[in-house]
Amino acid sequence: MLPFTHAKPSTSEDAVSLVLGSDRGQATRARTQFVAGGTNMTDYMKLGVARPGQLVDLNGLEDGAFRQIKVSPSEIRLGALVHMSEVEDHPEIQKLLPVLTDSLRLAASRQIRNMATIGGNILQRTRCEYFRETSWPCNKRNPGSGCAALEGFNRQHAVLGGSSSCIATYHGDLAQALVALDATVEVHGARGRRRLAFADLHRLPGETPEIETTIRADEIITSLTFPIAPWMARSTYLKIRDRQSYAFALASAAVVLDLDGTIVREARIALGGLATVPWRAREAEAELQGKPLDEETCARAAKVAFADATPRKDNGFKIALGRQTLVRALLETRDMRI
For 279, which of 2, 7, 71, 252 is 20 to 30 Å away at the CA? Predict the structure, then answer.
């Protein structure tokens, strides 16, 4: 680990100002990095994957809105410094949005969820083992060096959204629920405040996999908001993994359903463990709309969801697994008692 300086500002304006004069470019490679829970950054600094010259610790921010959970009849707002476990344990959210609670309960370990913040979790790096091991080429860690995963052991890697430069998988669980819930992200930066759709936060790798989000180096996330309706209580997050605890998803599905009897008025579907970004399966949603939700229609929707999937040497099984995961998630959500 290389030497670095540490700052702990008390306002978001001061936090942003600490970036000015160092760099305003691509966030993941910036000299100054914001941290809160620090559960990923600490690892990356120890491994030599990240070498920031300055850490700006957001835990000193005095604005209480950063740590508040607000639930109204029509909207939920999560401050960026709320811990994952606080949202997981919130009784109203458990009742109103099971998909959100499920996605947190199945993420990492309880110890990490006690430490990690909502804002930091959604900005976790898209990564694979070749990214974490600095002796291997990795276009994400070292642009232009190549991608060892393309011809290496790629069982865990993405079948959706990959490119010839990167096939690493986005591993977060919370993000799948948020993309299905049409969440909005508010950020504060040197140019002021702005809001963006959560679906527009993460970028496909293309030829520049080192640029993972649309957040700039001088911006911090202040909050996440999403509209809610009573029908969203019919929602589930299903995660399939190699072991029952503390493992990334091989395949996951966040499902939110609005049903008229068995007929689908609206379906929202996000897939995890299978793509390079939190993956909204809009074509599968359209396939279900207006139809009875039975095994046959679910299987057709699942086939549509993976129509453009690209398997590699070791991960072809993920296409069948992803389809099965989605069908099971849809049927389990249909059968929920709410």
Answer: 71
Which residue, 1, 8, 68, is CA-closest to 41? 1
**Separate counts of helices (H) and strands (E) for the chain:** 12, 12
pLDDT per residue as tens digits for the range 169-223: 999 999 999 999 999 999 999 899 999 999 999 999 999 999 999 999 999 999 9
> Three-class SS of residue 236?
strand
- Using DSSP, state whether 217 is helix, strand or coil: coil
Any idea how long the chain is?
Answer: 338
- Report the alpha-carbon distance of residue 287 to residue 301 in Å, rounded: 6
- Residue pair 297/291 in contact (Cβ under 8 Å)? The answer is yes
Rounded to whole angstroms, the Cα distance separating 156 from 173 reads 15
Q: Give the type of residue at 113.
A: R
Going from the C-alpha of 151 to that of each of 27, 147, 148, the distances in angstroms are 28, 8, 6
Judge residue 76's burial from the number of C-beta atoms within 10 Å of its C-beta, 0-12 exposed, 13-18 middle, 19 or more buried.
Answer: buried
Tokens of 15: 């936090």
